Amino acid sequence: MHKFFSHIRAYLRWYVLLLLVISIVILALVISREDRQGILTFVMLDVGQGDALFIESPTGTQVLVDGGPNNNLMKEISHVLPWYDRHVDILIVTNPDRDHYEGFIPFLDKYNTDLVLEPGTTNPNPAYKVLEDKIAIKNIQKIIVSRGERIDLGGGAYLEILFPDRDISGLSPNDGSIVMRLVYGETSVLLQGDSTARMEEYLAGLEGEALKSTILKVGHHGSRTSTSEKYVTAVKPLWAIISSGKDNSYGHPHKETLDTLNRLKVLTYDTCNNGDIVFKSDRKNFVLKNKNPKPTEVGCKE
């Protein structure tokens, strides 16, 4: 034992130096990962039958749009956040249905956030009260969004709120879904929660060509109740992406939805067949990072 401690004392400075070198290497790896080189990341996470979207701006601002059902978000979050990152700047609940907010409950047990954005509709489900209580206990700022607001994400990226444009407390969760555009340079994503065809056509009449976006996040997991032809024609997306679970009981995505997208020649992919769907933007173009993406199938069958 005496020899052991003598050895440690004799070589202590070398051990300290080795520890310092290892620390510098780890720090360098962290910094290199954080160097985004002007790139915006947009990911549709594979959380099954629900929605969870991750945004990271060129300056590192992180946003989660919806938390998916159950604890599926916790299984996916490591795909977009490194182990040392326990903070997401903004959480957005596009509508208070369980498949959009439930994953935020376990998420907030392990991660911190500065701001929660909500549409203004409510849900009597006890799980929603659990989320609202958790937000209050953690003293997280909560804002009900409104049309015309612009959320600066840094580096020229921002979220533009298109709906709600009024008090929607009396609307159904789907009709009251937050609709917004993620904009970065010449690229954009239209995000709409579970917004229905009725609200889509209202926005198409209100916005017209201003709805045009590179990517359309398809409403309500590809249900026939969304994705009207008038709306998709106004958006003119290059890609449409759908979040739906394998062999889900709703038959999402529905044939009518895929027929509309195919008729308008929109490339359509879903999480069911492709897992996480990852896009990167350099301000001018989005690039789909999935290799050999598989086509979307009616009902998300195995």
TrEMBL record:
The keyword Aminoacyl-tRNA synthetase does not apply. The keyword Transmembrane applies. Residues 46-236 form the Metallo-beta-lactamase domain. InterPro entries: ComA-like_MBL, Competence_DNA_uptake, Metallo-B-lactamas, RibonucZ/Hydroxyglut_hydro. The chain crosses the membrane at residues 12-31. SUPFAM superfamilies: Metallo-hydrolase/oxidoreductase (SSF56281). It comes from the Bacteria. Keywords: Membrane, Transmembrane, Transmembrane helix. This is Metallo-beta-lactamase domain-containing protein. It comes from Candidatus Zambryskibacteria bacterium RIFCSPLOWO2_12_FULL_39_23.
